[in-house]
Amino acid sequence: MEYSEEIIDHARNPRNFGDLKGANKRSKQSNATCGDMVEFYAKVDGGVIRDIRFKGVGCALSTAAASMLSDKVKGMKVDEVRELDGRVVVELMGEVNPARMKCVLLPLSAIRALVE
């Protein structure tokens, strides 16, 4: 399966990648099956994600999903983020091979854990 230019761009040049000074929320998730690991840091104030960054190691799909999701949730209310499900990832990334669904859902799992 070929990836879209947008997925390739986010995988090669992830947005919001790196440390976040002053973060008051942190979440780390990993997929033992493939070795993907992602860690999110956020500044949450007034029930809103003011800033978010991530670090981790993973395949192109996992990295792209983390990048795209971090862009999407920045500025969102925590309550809205809690409601996100796998459909949001598919909307952002387009069709995902069912065998790779764990890769793209890992960042969503980490972001949702961040706001629990």
From TrEMBL:
Name the UniProt record assigns to this protein: SUF system FeS assembly protein, NifU family
Domain NIF system FeS cluster assembly NifU N-terminal: 2-113
Pfam families, per the entry: NifU_N
PANTHER family from the UniProt entry: IRON-SULFUR CLUSTER ASSEMBLY ENZYME NIFU HOMOLOG (PTHR10093)
Highest taxon listed in the record's lineage: Bacteria
Organism of origin: Candidatus Chazhemtobacterium aquaticus
SUPFAM superfamilies: SufE/NifU (SSF82649)
GO biological process: iron-sulfur cluster assembly
Organismal lineage: Bacteria, Candidatus Chazhemtobacteraceae, Candidatus Chazhemtobacterium
GO molecular-function term, one example from the UniProt record: iron-sulfur cluster binding
Matching InterPro entries: NIF_FeS_clus_asmbl_NifU_N
